[in-house]
């Protein structure tokens, strides 16, 4: 079992900044996120998008912000569980919690902080009859370990950044790559699209534009993906793996069953410290709601700072909190 002071659900920008604020008060953090990498929707959905309202940065790319935040929290040595969804929460007799993931990972902590952005991201799935039959038997909705696709025949579907980036990356790993997209142009970054067109021209990938997914087949495991063109003509492709990358949709998931006060898919909090109605559980960032709420990253940073000041009493119940400026004390690593 992993033991920490604070378990942070969500490794987006607000969750990462919570690590920094907790670290200043000598509280250790473990972060868990359903996505296979840190950064939340910034890294998963719009890594190249410029952000203009982060203090001190006239403009900064979303992924660059995440990379800077990861460097900022290095002194506090956070630990991570990525690619796993939080499924369970068990309250202990002394008030502490055990957080349980979809893969059975257990995290013992004094405080739980929900920083899940818009919620737990669930993959958007194509409407194919046999899709569920081959989930985890050849159909993946995220790339968690690229090496698992080495020397395999891969079919990727989608036209956004994730589909383009993984097509490019897996070209040097997989035995064969086919990219299917229903349109004749991509909505992902132009530079990535150009690289995909170049790979297709060189014969290193198969590119099927203006094709729609029709079906998947196999015995125990997936063996074929079928697509159709505008003339309804079928193209049947051998596939060890099929990876549809159609984006993510936010849902509260199992958190909605924790007895928290919920208003329109968001968690109600006390703005004094962003605590919820359940003791030792806080909610910060876009997942909470209160009068005057603005869904801005910088507002989430403010909420993280007040949360950490409040959570201190649960981690160090015998100590008196003394507020100190970083300009006076600097950063003291663990």
What does this entry show, briefly?
By secondary structure, the chain is of the alpha/beta class. It has helices spanning 13-24, 40-44, 62-72, 161-170, 190-201, 297-315, 326-329; strands spanning 2-3, 6-9, 29-33, 50-51, 60-61, 79-82, 86-91, 97-101, 106-109, 111-114, 120-123, 153-157, 176-181, 206-209, 212-218, 222-228, 234-238, 241-244, 248-251, 262-263, 266-268, 281-283, 288-289.
Annotation, overall tally of beta strands: 23
Largest sheet: 5 strands, parallel
In one word, what is the shape? Answer: elongated
Number of helices: 7
Average predicted local confidence, pLDDT: 92
**Structure classification:** alpha/beta
- Please bin the fraction of helical residues: 10-25%
């Amino acid at each position: 079992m992993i033991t920490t002071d604070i378990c942070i659900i969500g490794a987006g920008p607000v969750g990462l900044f919570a690590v920094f604020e907790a670290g200043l008060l000598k509280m250790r953090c473990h972060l868990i996120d359903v996505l296979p990498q840190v950064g939340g929707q910034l890294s998963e959905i719009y890594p190249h998008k410029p952000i203009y309202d982060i203090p001190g940065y006239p403009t900064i790319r979303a992924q660059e912000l995440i990379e800077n935040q990861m460097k900022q929290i290095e002194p506090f040595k956070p630990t991570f569980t990525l690619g796993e969804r939080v499924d369970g929460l068990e309250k202990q007799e002394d008030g502490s919690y055990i957080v349980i993931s979809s893969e059975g990972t257990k995290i013992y902590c004094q405080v739980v902080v929900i920083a899940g952005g818009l919620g737990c991201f669930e993959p958007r799935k194509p409407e194919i009859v046999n899709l569920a039959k081959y989930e985890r038997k050849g159909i993946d909705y995220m790339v968690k370990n690229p090496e698992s696709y080495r020397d395999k025949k891969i079919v990727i579907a989608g036209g956004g950044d994730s589909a383009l980036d993984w097509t490019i990356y897996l070209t040097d790993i997989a035995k064969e790559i086919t990219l299917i997209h229903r349109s004749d142009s991509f909505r992902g970054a132009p530079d990535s699209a150009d690289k995909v067109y170049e790979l297709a021209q060189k014969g290193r990938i198969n590119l099927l534009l203006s094709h729609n997914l029709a079906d998947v087949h196999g015995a125990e495991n997936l063996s074929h993906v079928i697509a159709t063109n505008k003339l309804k003509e079928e193209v049947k492709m051998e596939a060890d793996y099929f990876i549809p990358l159609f984006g993510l949709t936010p849902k509260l998931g199992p958190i909605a069953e924790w007895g928290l006060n919920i208003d329109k898919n968001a968690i109600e909090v006390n703005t004094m410290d962003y605590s919820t109605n359940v003791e030792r559980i806080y909610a910060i960032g876009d997942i909470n709601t209160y009068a005057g709420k603005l869904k801005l990253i910088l507002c989430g940073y403010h909420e993280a700072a007040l949360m950490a000041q409040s959570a201190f009493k649960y981690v160090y119940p015998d100590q008196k909190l003394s507020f100190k400026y970083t300009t006076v004390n600097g950063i003291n690593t663990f």
